[in-house]
Amino acid sequence: MTDEFVRALVVESDLVVGVATTTGVCARAQRQHDLAATSAVALGRLMTGTVLTGLLPQSGAAVSLQILTNGRIRQVFADITDSGHVRGYIRPPDLGIPPLSETQRLGRRTLAHAMGDGILSMIRTADADPCVQSSIELLTGEIDEDLEDFFGRSDQVASAVALDVLLDADDRVRVAGGVLVQAQPSADLQRLEATRAAIADGGFAEMLAETSDARELLRRLFATAKEIDATPLEWKCRCSQERVVTSLRVIEVSELAEMVAKGDEVEVTCDFCAAEYKVTPREIEEVYTAIIKAQV
């Protein structure tokens, strides 16, 4: 079944809802990065959360989420365009899990043990506007609970969030998805709280285990929800030679000067898709010259 994001409105409760099914995207990420179990779940949850965060507001902005911690999971990063192109990476990629019973193995898995203390950051970038960045400390390390806390503290929007990636007996992605419910100005907050209770503590994971259809998940959560629109989702990297060369502009001028003086070719590997690029000495010099001229 195709990955999809569905946006809907619960009119009588003044709630806006986003449901995403991300099985294909998460499975592709696991193959791309050769992810072990815990790494696959963590990256899958963050990518799914990025889908919901990026597409629910209809802002047209590209969104990226990053988690940095002092735990065994050091970094998780994901971004999405307004057209539904998703990508991400995690360090380390090979974090597995202790032995589990079959019931534990096939259900919701905890991530807090691998996170430690950390920061969740969000960047929103629209074509016509400067990027907006905000950060909070991790609340629990489960990612969905942290993202819900982010919306409440940073965006001041009452929300309910559930994200999950369920694995099979071989620790491969079996099904993945998420839901984001946000209060509008006249929202029924009791309804929102009831929804939060229903999807918490593995409640959404149980629904996801039964169906990977976004509209069916929406129906189970809100039978009267009115669909607004839908966006197909796809793992797609946007790296290119031009982007790699442009990225040199963030390097310190003194370091660029040293690179120009050495005259060596620079090799760059994309964190998302492992594509390899070579930046010529001439390209490095052109970037350096442009920066120097801009400073005059």
Note down, in words, how this protein is organized:
The protein has 296 residues and is of the alpha+beta class. It folds into two domains: 4-235, Hsp33 domain; 241-295, HSP33 redox switch-like (CBS domain Like), CATH 3.90.1280.10. The chain is 36% helix and 29% strand. The protein has eleven helices and 13 strands. It has helices at 23-33, 37-55, 102-106, 112-115, 144-153, 189-199, 203-210, 214-221, 241-247, 253-262, 281-295; strands at 4-10, 15-21, 62-69, 75-80, 85-91, 118-125, 132-137, 159-167, 173-183, 226-232, 234-235, 266-269, 276-279. The N and C termini lie far apart (56 Å). The mean pLDDT is 93.
Give the strand line-up of the largest sheet. Answer: 7-6-3-4-5-11
User: Radius of gyration, Cα only, in angstroms?
Assistant: 21 Å
Count of helical regions: 11
What is the strand tally? 13
Mean pLDDT equals 93
Question: What tags apply to this protein structure?
Answer:
296 residues; alpha+beta; Hsp33 domain; CBS domain Like; 6-stranded mixed sheet; 5-stranded antiparallel sheet; 11 helices; 36% helix
In short:
The chain is of the alpha+beta class and 296 residues long. The protein is built from 11 helices and 13 strands. The strands form 3 sheets. It has a 6-stranded mixed beta sheet with strand order 7-6-3-4-5-11, with helices on one face. A 5-stranded antiparallel beta sheet has the order 8-9-2-1-10, with helices on both faces.
